[in-house]
Design brief:
single chain, mainly alpha, 18 helices
């Protein structure tokens, strides 16, 4: 079994910055409250006529793909830490516990869409796979990616008799109905003040946990972590030119198989609503065969382009943002709250899909520029510095 690479590469940093672009695009659909508004409300928003094009584009090519790349990169990063052994194992444990603390605070007091807490919990499982062979890692990852098909099929056939998460989610929804519908509480935050903001934080964080379980998210993320661990061992991104053939095969296979299934997933969401069970199962199957494969195609295509010097120069602008991924991820939430919620500009509910995606693009561009400016002067992003200092138990040098 080959050892993971320990060096940090500009390619991985740039790919992480690229992933953050899709993450902010997807997250702002929720933070802007656009996604929970009725079709009539969405159609009445300025520029809504563009949704006919942007909707399929977002669902087929964006949604789920970039969080998958983000998860894959976390797995690669975990692989680097796990390779250090000895003191590295203790530091890895501290690193995950600190990430869990950051994620829980983000989940409870800022936004229920947090993914860091799940990353930390699943990251704690990775030492169990440290001595698992490369082939076995891929087999386990494949089983995990396909497991939602078996789980959701059994749920439909047994009417959730064996699946407590679904029942608990229903109970939480029923309880919420007594206090006011979840949709009403969420919509109120775009025009309300601190009371509405604290209410949504209190109401949604626990429900988010059950949504994660109900959507089989842990299996998917753990599978991506294991694929990332395999990539770290094989040092694929350390020397992409050497692995061009493999990247090309993954890119072609991922796009050829993944894209049609992503189209199928979009079709099931929009044209099978009258058959919720069928829509759910079709969505589960198409997600399993579509989203991750297309995400791998994106990552492989990015690596292939990186081997060309002209493209590499263009992509290197994303590397500083990727080096500050934790800071930029958290700041995307803070900026989104300020822009869309009533405690800030209150644009939530006043912008269509083209509006919130334009804002997301603007935030991304500002973060690219700001990250470059910051890292010219400092060695780490603010949250990366704190995370690293606490992990190593000493104050790290911040200024260059």
């Amino acid at each position: 079994m080959s050892a993971p690479a320990t060096e940090r590469t500009h390619l991985l940093d740039a790919l992480r910055g690229f992933a953050l672009f899709g993450v902010v695009w997807s997250n702002y659909a929720f933070l802007s409250t656009w996604i929970i508004r009725s079709p009539e409300e969405q159609a009445a928003l300025p520029g809504a006529w563009l949704d006919v094009v942007l909707g399929p584009f977002h669902d087929i090519l964006i949604d789920g793909k970039f969080y998958s790349i983000f998860s894959l990169l976390f797995g690669i990063g975990f692989g680097f830490f796990l390779d250090k052994g000895g003191s590295g194992q203790a530091r890895f444990l501290r690193r995950m516990l600190l990430l869990l603390l950051i994620g829980v605070l983000h989940l409870r007091f800022l936004w229920a869409g947090d993914i860091l807490s799940l990353y930390a919990i699943l990251g704690l499982l990775l030492p169990l796979f440290r001595h698992v062979g490369d082939r076995a890692l891929l087999v386990i990852a494949t089983v995990l990616l396909l497991s939602p098909i078996a789980v959701d099929t059994a749920r439909v056939l047994t009417n959730d008799a064996f699946y407590p998460a679904g029942k608990v989610a229903d109970a939480l929804e029923a309880e919420a109905a007594v206090k006011g519908s979840r949709r009403e509480v969420w919509l109120a935050v775009s025009t309300g003040g601190w009371k509405e903001f604290t209410t949504i934080c209190e109401r949604f964080w626990l429900f988010r946990i059950w949504i994660i379980l109900d959507s089989n998210r842990p299996q998917k993320v753990l599978a991506l972590f294991l694929i990332g661990l395999w990539i770290a061992r094989r040092k694929l991104f350390a020397d992409p030119t050497r692995h061009r053939t493999l990247f090309k095969r993954i890119c072609i296979a991922g796009a050829t198989i993944g894209l049609p299934f992503c189209v199928l997933n979009w079709y099931s969401i929009n044209y099978l609503p009258q058959l919720p069970e069928a829509q759910g199962l079709v969505g589960t199957v198409s997600y399993a065969f579509g989203v991750v494969l297309l995400a791998l195609a994106y990552a492989s295509g990015f690596a292939l382009l990186w081997t060309d010097q002209h493209w590499q120069k263009r992509f290197e602008v994303l590397a500083p943002m990727g080096r500050m991924a934790l800071t930029n991820y958290l700041m995307q939430t803070v900026i989104g709250i300020f822009v869309f919620y009533g405690i800030g500009l209150g644009l939530g509910g006043r912008v269509s899909m083209v509006g919130y995606e334009s804002i997301a693009l603007a935030v991304f561009i500002v973060q690219v520029i700001w990250s470059r400016w910051w890292l010219v002067r400092f060695q780490y992003g603010p949250f990366e510095w704190a995370w690293r200092s606490l992990t190593y138990g000493k104050v790290m040098a911040m200024r260059k």
